[in-house]
Amino acid sequence: MSDEVKKDELKKETAEAPKAAPVLEEAKEEREGEFSFDTTSEELPEEIKQKLEKNKQARAKKKLIKKKKKRVAKVVKVGRAYIQATYNNTMITLTDNGGDVISWASAGLAGFKGAKKATPYAAQIITKIATQKAREEYGLEEVSVFVSGVGTGREAAIRALNANGLNVSAIKDVTPVPHNGCRPKKPRRV
Question: How far apart are CA 189 and CA 172, in angstroms?
């Protein structure tokens, strides 16, 4: 008896499936009409969007307490991108040519925890967050990239800068290299 009920439910589900297809097609048509700077035309994942909104609301509450100063809209077309890729984390900072910070993001800010912070995917997401803010608020178009560290997110972050519509004019590795200074740590036994 229960097998028959399950079969009936499966038939009902499969019968309802074709109805969802026109809705998807309508959504695609709507998206085609919109203009986007994104070359990948992908949005941020929902979990990360929710965490960013939560952070934004928390900051908004703090800002209500402080008096707000008038800020002159600054336009920065050419700037610098500093990527710090360590074994445990990836951070990106976008600045103007004078070194004043325009926007920044880290894997922890995007909601990644533990070992996931040092992944190439996390680097891609935080680069997207930082570039969106810099492009919306300051009109940033071109960057020179300075990469520091040996983490796995360094290449993914550079690729994501280019994929999110920023022209990468130069890439420089500024990882500090000792001239046989301090004694290194003993090798790990894995």
Answer: 33
**Residue 45, token pair as written in the block:** 């994942």
Q: What is the pLDDT of residue 90?
A: 94
Count the Cβ atoms, other than its own, within 10 Å of residue 143.
24
Beta bridge partner(s), residue 82: 93, 146
Q: What pTM did the predictor assign?
A: 0.65
101-113, pLDDT tens digit by residue? 999 999 999 999 9
Domains of the chain, residue spans: 75-173
Give tens-digit pLDDT for 11-42. 555 555 444 444 444 444 444 444 444 444 46
Give the number of other Cβ atoms within 10 Å of residue 130's Cβ: 29
Q: Choose among 160, 175, 95: nearest CA to 122.
A: 160
Distance CA 144, CA 95 (A): 10
* Domain 75-173 CATH superfamily: Ribosomal protein S11/S14 (3.30.420.80)
Higher pLDDT, 26 or 124: 124
